[in-house]
Amino acid sequence: MPTNLPGPSSLARMQACIRSVIPPHADSPSEYAEHGNAKHEYLANVLTHGREKALMLARDEDREWLADIDTDALPASKTGAYAPEVSWALDMRTGKCRVLGQQLSRKEARFRAMENEVVGTADLAGLRPGTIIILDYKSGWLAPAAKLNPQLLAYAVMGARAYSSKQQRITQAEISIVRAPDDAQPWVDTFHVDEMQLDVAFMQMRQTYQLAEKALQLAKEGRWDEIPPAVVGPHCRYCPRFLFCEAQMAIVKAFTKAPEEGRPVLPVEALTDDEFLEFSEKLECAETVLEQLRIRHDGRLRQRPIPLGDGLIFGEKHSKSDHILPKPAREALMQLFGPALGEGVYNAAAETVTKLPKERLRSALRALVLPGLPKAEQKITKLLESTMDELRERQAVSPTPTRKICRYKGELPLPKLEDKTG
Ligand code: SF4
Predict the structure, then answer these.
(1) Are residues 343 and 206 in the same domain?
(2) Phi, psi (rounded to 5 degrees) for 48
């Protein structure tokens, strides 16, 4: 029977709040997950096929921001040094681990595992004599540092156990978080794990999974009072139980309950410091709840848009926006306004070597070109549009697909064909 146990990416959350393992779980795709998946797939493809082919394999709507990632500064560019997307299955009762495969979908990897096994997939894995090397890509700043990261430690345990043999024992690990933000330089945080730390990590994992099994059993028997209470915190962000969580619902209720007679709805100014700190904490939690609801709200409209009558649709509008290509734009601006002025406009407008936003071009034209035009022609919208036309003509603009949830005039999109083979 395939495994039901959550993987190491849930470990930190399980350790903070064991109730998160109890169903029901809502597994709706979030924008963050889609974004993260696109990046992981792209980086795995860079390692296997190289940057150009990986960009070709990416979805149209992701290509532009993926191209901005400086892959030369990432381990993803070191073809042959690491294996991408390696999956293991660790039996929590025996402590034995086996390799499931490489570049499997999460679903396929879980399907290959047994009931008692925990499945983990490292973004990149490598081996040196006696040492397993684990690298994991993270986009945001929320994940704990490599040293304290239970997910990476779990991969290290898995890799060390999967590749140890009589001839060669793997007793050390090198775990790294590779921060790859969309708009900043990547950097790597590495931690060296010794044999004792690997053993402790395994024992902590085992303890957490035992607690999870116990919580599941108690929930099944309806003995809710014996399960530790839900603990709200930053770990709630991707919790699959979020929408059913009693602690989150309590926060929403605290904000929506009717005010006592004679008291304002939110007496923020009248709060004492202690009350204010409590209010502040609740506010942060409520914002997270609303953010989650927004993601699910948008996901629902993406899948099933609503016709509002008179040709108006409430759903995801697909359109194209102009993406200015900085290199050809520089040449084009220099031809258009002359070398000095064109170069000046380019320098003022380009944000980085890969980004030249239209709004910055507008400001640069307003500051540098507009004052030199005859009074009657000093209209920025007209100048921007004529410049954009020239850039299009010179192949310096590429139309990029964009998506936005809104009410718009249009046709109801055809329903998507679902893949029933998986
Ligand atoms: S959402 Fe609820 S169940 Fe999930 S981690 Fe947060 S407090 Fe725990």
Answers:
(1) no
(2) -85, -45
